[in-house]
Amino acid sequence: MKIIGRKREQKILEGCLRSGRPEFIAVYGRRRVGKTYLVREYFNNNFAFYTSGASDLNMKGQLRLFYESLLKYGWKEKKIPKDWFEAFRMLQKLLESSVAHRDPATGRLVVFLDELPWMDTRRSNFKSALDFFWNTWGSAREDLALIVCGSATSWIIDNLLESTGGLYKRVTRQIRLNPFTLYECEQLFATNEIALTRQQIIQSYMVFGGIPYYLNYFDRRLSLAQNIDVICFQDNGPLKYEFSNLYASLFRNSKKHMSIIKKLASLNRGLTRTELTCQQDISDGEGLTDALSELEQCGFIRKYHDVTKNNTAWRYQVIDPFTLFYLRFLEPGKILSWIAHVGTPAFYSWCGHAFELVCLIHIPQLKEALGISGVETEEYSWCNNKSQGAQIDLVIDRKDGVANLCEMKFSAQPYQIDAAYEKQLLAKIEAFRTQTGSKKALHLTLVSASGLIRNARANCVISEIDGDDLFAP
């Protein structure tokens, strides 16, 4: 097996093999994150049955693919199933036959249904057939491990994990596969013999996030900037049109989701629902609620309390690095070459905001560096509502009586605080205390990609975190 990271997920799969009871495992996560690769590599492609749904096929086309997979695994009957009930009856008979492959160590029948949401076409009764297959047969088979997978995270959650129908509480284990951390990205680059410094790996994360599929496009002969140009900006670049393809593959009404994403991305710290509905083409109602929930479930946005308003107000913020990179640079007419853009004032402005997002994604590593991994915390950003420009991009509000006010700085060299910036930092702390009424000890925390120069002006910084701390496992 050549699996990078995913230690927790591998333990879950190992537990399913050895549990001695029927297992129904749901694996979900955004497109390109490595769900299929994890399952295939862990089981070394040794399945009793494997098939995958395909996008843009009707029920007849999906059933043909299912039937062709049955033939591959030993089914002999020359008849394409007329519906999903018949298809699952064929699968049941195949698994009961002597030709069914079993895991050599445990004797398990491992069945892998990939891209399950695509099989559920309109009026196909797919969910009812899956329900019948599991509840009348699969759930009584102690030797069966049924693994289902899908990129349409909202479908998995609504129809399996939170189902109120026949599949209610039938999933025995779930794996939400998240993008790689910086630690796992470093491992992937090393495995692929891509020579990058840690600061360059951080920059790659600012563009591609921790999506293994994207990072596997890197050419070891090229620099980071050259790779970004080839992958994203050239006419035949593999990710040049990824934005629209990505959202279209996940959401049936992808135009609405992309419109919401574009509006939220217009402000770095995001928008409240009220602010969002004031935007053109965004209407309030159940449709917006569903779309925001789906975007959050797929990992494109997060929501957090807006402390400048009240405890019930939520702010929605885009946290997918590639989405933000696309909207800023790859949309038609923005820039034509990344190499030509590197070093410009706009490039350095982007670096600052993009590094803040990397830090936000690595909050567990920040907490580890601060020695508070076991402390309950709430994370949010704060903006001074009485003056423009004064904001704190990350507040780690702790249950132990401390709030870390985090400033993130991306620079090639160790960061140096001058008199003007020291004054600005002290003013932020005072404004935060005054407006929030916080009674906690406020610890100014500097997160710098290259470390901090400890001069006299740096005494206001209580806690310091550098780029290497973000690479903790």
Commentary on this structure:
With 473 residues, the chain is of the alpha/beta class. It folds into 4 domains: 7-176, Rossmann fold (3-Layer(aba) Sandwich), CATH 3.40.50.300; 182-240 and 331-339, no CATH class; 243-328, Orthogonal Bundle (Arc Repressor Mutant, subunit A); 362-471, Trna Endonuclease, Chain: A, domain 1, CATH 3.40.1350. It has 20 helices and 13 strands. The chain has a 5-stranded parallel beta sheet with strand order 2-3-4-1-5, sandwiched between helices. Helix 4 runs parallel beside helix 6. The two termini are 20 Å apart.
Can you tell me the CATH class of the largest domain?
Alpha Beta
User: On the 0-100 scale, what is the average pLDDT?
Assistant: 93
**Rg (CA only):** 25 Å
Q: Which percent range fits the helix content?
A: 40-55%
Uncertain segments of ≥5 residues (pLDDT<50)?
A: none
Q: Topology, please?
A:
Layout: H1 7-18, E1 23-28, H2 35-42, E2 49-52, H3 59-72, H4 84-96, E3 109-114, H5 116-119, H6 126-136, E4 144-150, H7 153-161, E5 173-176, H8 182-191, H9 198-208, H10 212-215, H11 224-233, H12 242-250, H13 254-264, E6 271-272, H14 273-277, H15 286-297, E7 301-305, E8 314-318, H16 321-330, H17 338-341, H18 345-361, H19 363-370, E9 377-383, E10 391-398, E11 402-409, H20 419-436, E12 441-448, E13 463-466
Helix pairs in contact: 3-4, 4-6, 9-16, 9-18, 12-13
